[in-house]
From TrEMBL:
It comes from Saccharopolyspora kobensis. It comes from the Bacteria. Pfam families: p450. Transmembrane segments: none annotated. Keywords: Cytoplasm, Heme, Iron, Metal-binding, Monooxygenase, Oxidoreductase. Its main location: cytoplasm. This is Cytochrome P450. GO terms for molecular function: cholest-4-en-3-one 26-monooxygenase activity; heme binding; iron ion binding; steroid hydroxylase activity. One of its GO terms (biological process) is cholesterol catabolic process.
Length: 403
């Protein structure tokens, strides 16, 4: 199917269908060249906002004290007016509260806990890949990519196994959809379900603590007081929110890119390129979170453009990750790319708390593919995700030959 020519036309970045129906990389190339910082006009449903597209502008803005995350860090939420979790959930908390809260969350990611979780990731991924090799056809998203991230976070939080499928379903509804017609209301009610679920679990662990991460968060003070049950719940949710879909889409994107670039798959299988280097290119290439949103809390200047206090600012990391002034031939999938300072995990104070886990999941996937799989074949079109935040696909029909 040929893509519509973009010309001078602007795309509606608030509309999820925009990212499915257009040559998005062509659009960003043009934006970086012609209007790297520009105002996105208001639509009949949403106010206007700033769009920032170049790496050299975006990277420093991640550190800017003129920008706040407290009204939300995803465009859809900020456009609605406010994030109800602002000031409670780590990702949408500003200094000075952000630092002590982040330290508490960090202490849940100790080497001992992570070491065990990484080993579980490796075993789970290897088991899943072994089970699909030589099947006539299967959906890589459903059989493998859906299974690893949610179970990793649930292992971390000791969520009972029987509750996990429902959490996965809610989370899919909360962030994106494979249906173009799904409503914002579905997403909001799914988010509420997740928070309510974790409130109940947090209360149970506070009353009867165990060895798990929720119990630790429930019984440790931050700035002289325990977190409320609501704060505990939104921060548990933030681990799912941050770590499930992003990891999932990057895994699906990895397999698709390896199928479409057989010489890169060969280089990985023969050990010509390391798994670690391949993981970084997959992260750059997939850019799972296409943008991060902020709100200006004072006037400032970016690239000669005046941004006023109260304005919404969007930082398009998918564009930064393909900025030709930083990445040579950016639309080539090059597993050996070095340096590869992509912004897929963000930058600065909110840099992804789960970056190590995200990398470990991709590392486990690529290692299992190298160990078990020979030829990979695509068996149909992947189904795209309708979202202006998440980049990628919901399904990917494939066949794996054994090695
Ligand atoms: C923050 C991406 C995996 C938990 C972020 C941010 C990005 C990101 C871009 C910055 C948000 C901002 O600046 O507003 C990703 C990607 C992942 C991934 C691409 C996988 C490929 C994970 C995992 C977890 C996680 C596995 C948890 C287990 C978080 C949390 C934050 C965060 C809690 C907020 C940190 C803060 O505000 O201090 N992530 N993430 N992420 N991520 Fe991830």
């Amino acid at each position: 199917m040929s893509q519509p020519a973009l010309g001078e036309r602007s795309l509606d970045l608030t509309d999820p269908a925009t990212f499915v129906d257009n040559d998005v990389h062509g659009f960003w190339r043009e934006v970086r060249a012609q209007r790297p910082v520009h105002w996105h006009e208001a639509t009949d449903r949403h106010p206007g906002f700033w769009v920032v597209a170049r790496y050299s502008d975006i990277q420093p803005l991640f550190h800017s004290e003129a920008l706040s995350s407290a009204r939300g860090n995803v465009l859809d939420v900020v456009l609605r007016g406010d994030d109800s979790a602002g000031g409670s959930m780590l990702a949408v908390t500003d200094p000075p509260r952000h630092r002590p809260l982040r330290n508490l969350m960090w202490s849940a990611f100790t080497p001992r806990v992570l070491g065990e979780v990484v080993e579980q990731i490796r075993q789970r991924t290897d088991r899943l890949v072994s089970a699909v090799v030589e099947l006539d056809e299967f959906d890589f998203a459903a059989e493998i990519a859906d299974q690893v991230p949610i179970n990793t976070i649930c292992d971390l939080l000791s969520v009972p196994v029987e509750d996990r499928p429902e959490l996965l379903q809610w989370n899919k509804m909360a962030l994106s959809s494979d249906r173009a017609d799904s409503s914002e209301l579905d997403a909001i009610s799914a988010r509420n379900e997740i928070v309510l679920y974790f409130m109940e679990l947090a209360q149970e662990r506070r009353d009867d603590p165990g060895e798990d991460v929720i119990s630790m968060l429930a019984t440790t003070e931050v700035e002289g007081r325990l977190l409320t049950v609501e704060e505990l719940a939104v921060n548990c949710y933030s681990l799912i929110l941050g770590g499930d879909e992003t990891s999932r889409v990057s895994a699906i994107c990895a397999v698709l890119a390896l199928i479409e670039n057989p010489e890169q798959w060969r280089a990985l299988r023969t050990g010509e390129v390391s798994v670690e280097s391949a993981v970084e290119e997959v992260l750059r290439w997939s850019s799972p979170a296409m943008h991060l949103a902020r709100t200006a809390i004072r006037d400032f200047d970016v690239d000669g453009t005046k941004v006023r206090s109260g304005d919404i600012v969007t930082l398009w990391t998918i564009s930064a990750n393909n900025d030709e002034t930083v990445f040579e031939d950016p639309r080539r999938f090059t597993l050996s790319r070095s340096p590869n300072k992509h912004l897929s995990f963000g930058h600065g104070p909110h840099y992804c708390l789960g970056a190590f886990l995200g990398r470990s999941e991709l590392n486990a996937l690529l290692s299992a593919l190298v160990a078990r799989v020979g030829r990979m074949e695509q068996r149909g079109a992947p189904r795209p995700i309708f979202s202006n935040f998440l980049n990628g696909y919901e399904s990917l029909p494939v066949h794996f030959e054994s090695r």
